[in-house]
Amino acid sequence: MSFKNTFVIGLVAWLSGLLFGVGLIISGMANPAKVLNFLDIFGHWDPSLAFVMGGAVVVTLVGFKLVSKQANPVLLPSFQLPTRQDIDKPLIIGAVFFGLGWGVGGYCPGPAWTALSAFAPGTLVFLVAMLIGMSLATGFKKRLT
Question: Which end of the chain is more exposed for a tag (fewer CB within 10 A), N or C?
């Protein structure tokens, strides 16, 4: 792959990430108070994020339908799709920890990185804890295998 192709791919990835981050900020997904209110269905429930998630699902479904009709992606020689379809113990444990972190901190990883740029309080603590947790999980996985 040439430098020009690598640069274009990097630029498209950066612009995509920027668009995603701006969308997270505009939608309120980078605001942990809004996320926690969305998760608090028996308290001060804020259903507005359901529309954000619903819109994301619709865009993704349409995008996958359009992309699946192509032989190759535009900037790469082939698609890189996951092949595993099983549900195993590490997946369940990871999902539980992800949900706990989201419910306690009000962030999931993407919005947490976005909120860091907005200097939201507590974001740095959450990101450090998340990175430590990811490192510990990787270490445990290596020890078990």
Answer: C
- Could you tell me the two tokens for 91? 């997946």
Provide the residue type at 112 as one letter: A
Number of H helices, E strands in the chain: 6, 0
- What is the number of domains present in the chain? 1
pLDDT per residue as tens digits for the range 29-58: 888 888 889 989 999 899 998 999 999 999
Cβ neighbours of residue 106 under 8 Å, at least 6 residues apart?
31, 32, 33, 35, 36, 39
**Could you tell me the residue range of the domain that residue 47 belongs to?**
3-144
Whether the per-residue pLDDT at 62 is higher than 90: the answer is: yes
